[in-house]
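To close the chapter, one final illustration. This time we ask the reader to focus less on the individual chains and more on the assembly as a whole: which components sit near each other, and how the overall shape emerges from the parts.
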Amino acid sequence: MLSRVADSLYWLSRYLERAEHTARLIDVDVQLRLDQSPDAATARRERLLASLQIPSALAGVVDARTILRTLTFDRETPSSIVSCVASGRENLLQVREQASSEMWEQFNRLYLQVIGSNSDDSWILQSNTFFRAVQEGSFLFQGVTDATMSHGEGWHYLQLGRFLERTELVALLVGTHFSGLQQPSDQPVEGADYLEWVGLLKCCSAFEAYCKVYSAEIRPVRIAEFLLFNPEFPHSISFSVGKVHGALHVIGELTGRKADLPLRIAGRLQATLRFTQIEEILAEGVRPYLDGLRRQCAQAHSAIQQIYFDYPVETAMAAGD
Amino acid sequence: MTAMPSSAEASFPPPFTHYQYDEAYDEMFERPGVPRAHYRTLFRTLLELPAEDLRNSKQAADLSFLHQGITFTVYGNKEGTERIFPNDLLPRIIPYSEWATIERGLTQRITALNLFLNDIYHEGRILSDGVVPRELVYSCKHFRREMRGLIVPRGIYVSVCGTDLVRLPDGQFAVLEDNLRVPSGVSYMLANRKVLKRVFPSLFRDYGVCPIDHYAQALLATLRSQAPVNCPHRGEPSIVLLTPGVSNSAYFEHTFLAQQMGVDLVEGRDLLVHDNVAYMRTTAGLRRVDVIYRRVDDDFLDPLCFRTDSVLGVPGLFNAYRAGNVTLANAIGTGVADDKAMYAYVPAIIRYYLDQDAVLPNIETFLLSETSQRNHVLDHLGDLVVKAVGESGGYGMLIGPHSTVEQREEFRRRILSDPRNYIAQPTLALSRAPCFIEGAVEARHVDLRPYILSGESVTLVPGGLTRVALRRGSLVVNSSQGGGSKDTWVLRE
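The assembled structure is written out below.
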């Protein structure tokens, strides 16, 4: 597979994952506001901006609508939904012949829907429908991809991009949420706090899955345990890291070039997530632990670039053709 | 619209009420209101079908184009640079007997043109014999002296050709121009067919239309047959399609053809040349490339050899080509044979190499480098069409009857300062075909671009791209200038 093509597949998947994530975060935020006092909403909004890595300039803006519009429609904001969907589509456009026609049509439809919406006041009232549509557009694309594209090398780059992005996004989200807390509670929370913790689960589509494991009793420590360690839930960090490892392994077999460093990183993360107790992480602090994890993801990303996408020609020549 | 005899108007039933009928050949009607035999079924269908149904089909077709991203890029227009390629809902129908003539004529023409290119880049017999003026060849900006003496596989310079045909008022098809460099549009031909099969399934079946779906396979076979003689894996040559990239107006087509053929779509930056061998950069390391179906112009192919500022090309590619390690299709330097001044000599070229008369006639062409012809043209600028010889896409053109005094003066100046760069032709009344426009059926001017593949043998898929001048009264069919296209049905024998 062409290096440029692999690179584009990898990125388009990352962009789409980010668009879906941003849409879900805003959607949850808008819903929660309805139940909350204005003060709680402001605190949470700051957290929202921090977990989307929006520069502090915007954090000073109090006007909720401006923030909403920026996160959704501002082309200058790289993690806005429109920017992510447009960048994803641009990457897909570069590799159109590698994707199935169904995939292209689905992505294009999502793109047309996003750029076709405008941010007037009536839109804001209906914004819930919009954020749902973005998430569904992403689900559909993944479904169509799995159903119509060969699960060969290209498909594995899509997987790699999606799950590496997801690992980083969830790590940042959970880390931000826990960063203010000295000692997270192991007791059921109530009242305003209850809403916040449920909000965190919903930001990972994890509320229902959590309830199935731990019942509807909301305890912050259990939330951390679930979002970090659960091996079966597709938005948990452990699950995502496992997918990254799996994709790297198959790509190594298919290309005959093993990605030593990224495989080692993913393998190590997988092992720690599997064999560590949540208490050990609480002792270190959830935020510091997850920051370290994100740094390792960034290292894996650079190494993947150098091994498969952007290697120096001299080394390839020396290896013979 | 100019005044029309009221009797003619009366004889067109709805939805044909505003159908324009005059001296131009009409594809559908033999007389006002009386369809030709091969159009009768379509005519009846249109009379019976509620306009609402057609309008819905049209909407569905447009939406399908948009969702599939069958778009083209308009240069020099910042907003909405991506547009869907306008398509018309009604098929253009051609009886088999007429197609057989076209096929014979185009096969003859491409055979002669390949022999011509091979000759002028080697011994140049046709020039020594004085059939084509040496001066005309060497002054052409698409003539590439780097190609002299270079041997191309099978002597085929033009593997893919798109020739524009028009129908004269007497119903005869004539050649308007040859496109021998990087002709485009074939994906629209295939997309139109896909849509029409869905819109008119039973009409399509009843008509017995020749299929065209095998185009990509035929193209692949043609490219295979062009593999370099010393290619290490001759049975399975590695083929790629080279595109200028995502911002090129025909990018959709490049992705489409690569996908349909199952070959890699590459950009210049994906390729590199080492020791005169071309490679592509893959995740598994470098892989050798044998045949490049390139959709990049000569000028941009190799910055070491042609335009040094090109970032689309591959440094060293020409040397690999010269060494016979990689095939480029089409070859470099084919533009010398589709120069609009050279066009005037094609009937002579056919006679010279094949000892035959041209099956398909040329349009009368005035060469402005010749004094008497030039004077005649300058006296009649208001009646003629003037074209720059090296341009395509409908750019650099003066349509006399539709021009202003200033435009004519501008062209007079341009012609006098560089007569070799221009030719003139009579203004043609292109034939008209019925089109579905805003709920009614109206007549619009059309041409026809069949695609000709030459490899081991010459192959045409029956039909081609019928281009339509969608603006009322317009004669310009180019997509960059408000043209669209429609499906072309060649009926089975």
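Chain B has 14 helices and 24 strands. The radius of gyration of chain B is 23 Å. With these observations in hand, you are ready for the problems at the end of the chapter.
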